[in-house]
Design a protein that fits this description.
CATH architecture of chain A: 3-Layer(aba) Sandwich
Strand content of chain B: 5-15%
Number of strands of chain B: 5
CATH superfamily of the largest domain in chain B: Cobalamin-binding domain
CATH class of the largest domain in chain B: Alpha Beta
Largest sheet of chain B: 5 strands, parallel
Radius of gyration of chain A: 18 Å
Shape of chain A: globular
Order of helices and strands of chain A: HHHEHHEHHEHEEEH
Helix content of chain B: 55-70%
Shape of chain B: globular
Helix content of chain A: 40-55%
Largest interface: A-B, 33 and 29 residues
CATH architecture of the largest domain in chain B: 3-Layer(aba) Sandwich
Distance between the termini of chain B: 29 Å
Oligomer: heterodimer
Strand order of the largest sheet of chain B: 2-1-3-4-5
Largest sheet of chain A: 4 strands, antiparallel
Number of domains of chain B: 2
Structural class of chain B: alpha/beta
Number of helices of chain B: 9
Number of domains of chain A: 1
Order of helices and strands of chain B: HHHHEHEHEHEHEH
Strand order of the largest sheet of chain A: 1-2-6-3
Radius of gyration of chain B: 18 Å
Chain lengths: 233, 211
């Protein structure tokens, strides 16, 4: 089990400002800084992070990955996970009260609601990074195989893994135990939740060229950071 | 500085205490409600929209300005209604069926109200038939649809097709947006416009509504 505290997930103010569109070199207004301060206070009081994690073999993950059969014909993840040294199914949520507060604020103080939403989104991203570092901290079997391991989270809806893969992921992992539900569109509630597979192994296995047809539409091109993180194969 | 310029200036600063006070003073000084709306509040929001588009300010500043605009509108609204001043048009917005994300849609709604439109927000998880039924019943000029999931985007096409089947395409225009949505997708499904972000969405709605 991975333990999270709101403190380690709390995003840096600069990251929230950037997510909200503050251009580098532009000074935020005092009123917007006050909003950010209040949003961070609310986050500290309302975030109830919880995660569930389950080790799987490559063979077991193959079934999860296949899902309903909707994956892209050429999916980067299909070439990455079989070379992994370790795989964990993973789901995380910041809990229902935070999402409820964001919704409530939008009906009244929408400016604060939008900033709190951005804080929560950044915190969910941070949770994925904490989980990756957790996987990397586990003992490496056969040490020396390809140098230190790197772990990245791959999620349904990205890297050729069809979003309907959430169904098989949920069936194998049961994130319902921490309060995450899936709707008919494969959307998780509470909304500030993250799911996928933690893939750990030699850094080179993550390296990929962002040249797949779906890369042009991707709104989360973390693979570029991965390519930089991984030495050439 | 004239009081209208001062209203505009305070609105740009997001001062939601000063704006309604100044609106009250402007009305007490004999200015017409419509003039206060157009040359004070909407003028200020136009400046804010332009600065946001040019990335001189960021989203919280826009929302603070919108909050100040709403505070000013609360003072003006009874007078505008009494004077029979019409909005720039009625817009139905919602996140499509299956989608529970509505932050982006909410931001567009806030900006549209700030631009002088009447917004009918259907919330999230809105079926195609409801978009069309409400647009017809309320005589809306534009339907704005948001989706954050590729799995829910087809509902946008359902709305466009349903409008065509009900011979409403010319009367009710459509605009789509959301993270996985693109201008190409909008064209492919026959939507009238695509909004990359809330500021662009407002500009497109103005064009669609002829406002």
């Amino acid at each position: 089990m991975i333990h999270f505290s709101p403190a380690e997930l709390e995003p840096a103010p600069a990251a929230v400002r950037a997510a909200l569109g503050l251009k580098r070199g532009v000074e935020p207004s005092p009123r917007s800084e006050e909003l950010l301060r209040r949003a961070l206070d609310l986050f500290r009081g309302l975030a109830a992070p919880a995660a569930v994690v389950k080790p799987v073999t490559a063979e077991e993950f193959a079934t999860v990955f296949a899902g309903r059969g909707g994956n892209e014909p050429r999916a980067p993840l299909a070439g990455i996970y079989p070379r992994a040294g370790r795989l964990h199914l993973f789901a995380f949520t910041l809990g229902g009260p935070l999402g409820a507060e964001i919704g409530r604020l939008f009906a009244g103080d929408f400016a604060l609601g939008a900033v709190l939403d951005a804080v929560a989104s950044q915190a969910a991203e941070n949770a994925a990074r904490v989980a990756e570092r957790w996987s990397e901290s586990l003992p490496v079997p056969g040490a020396g195989d390809g140098g230190p391991w790197r772990c990245f989270l791959y999620s349904p809806g990205y890297c050729g893994w069809h979003v309907s893969g959430q169904e098989a992921l949920f069936a194998a992992l049961r994130p319902e135990t921490i309060g995450i539900r899936l709707n008919a569109s494969f959307l998780m509630t509470p909304l500030k939740s993250v799911s996928g597979v933690l893939v750990a192994g030699p850094a080179a296995i993550h390296r990929l060229e962002a040249s797949y047809p779906f890369c042009a539409r991707c709104t989360s091109p973390a693979c570029q950071e991965r390519s930089l993180a991984a030495p050439p194969a | 500085m004239s009081i209208l310029n001062e209203i505009s200036q305070r609105l740009e600063e997001g001062d939601d205490a000063a704006v309604p006070r100044l609106v009250g003073e402007a009305l007490a000084g004999g200015l017409a409600a419509k003039a206060v709306l157009d040359d004070g509040l909407i003028a200020g929001m136009n400046v804010v929209g332009g600065r946001f588009r040019d990335r001189e300010i960021f989203l919280p500043d826009v929302l603070l300005a919108a909050r100040a605009m709403y505070a000013g509108l609360d003072v003006l609204k009874p007078l505008l209604e009494r004077a029979g001043v019409a909005s720039r048009g009625r817009v139905v917005i919602g996140s499509v069926h299956g989608d529970l994300h509505d932050i982006g849609k909410n931001l567009v709604g806030i900006m549209l109200k700030g631009a002088g439109f009447e917004v009918i927000d259907l919330g999230h998880d809105v079926p195609a038939a409801r978009f069309v039924a409400v647009a017809r019943e309320r005589d809306a000029r534009v339907i704005g649809m948001s989706a954050l999931l590729t799995t829910t985007m087809p509902v946008m096409k359902e709305v466009v097709d349903l409008l065509a089947r009900e011979n409403l395409r010319g009367r009710v225009r459509t605009i789509v947006g959301g993270a996985p949505v693109s201008a190409e997708y909008a064209a492919e499904i026959g939507a009238d416009a695509y909004g990359y972000d809330c500021a662009q969405a407002v500009e497109r709605v103005k064009e669609l509504a002829g406002a």
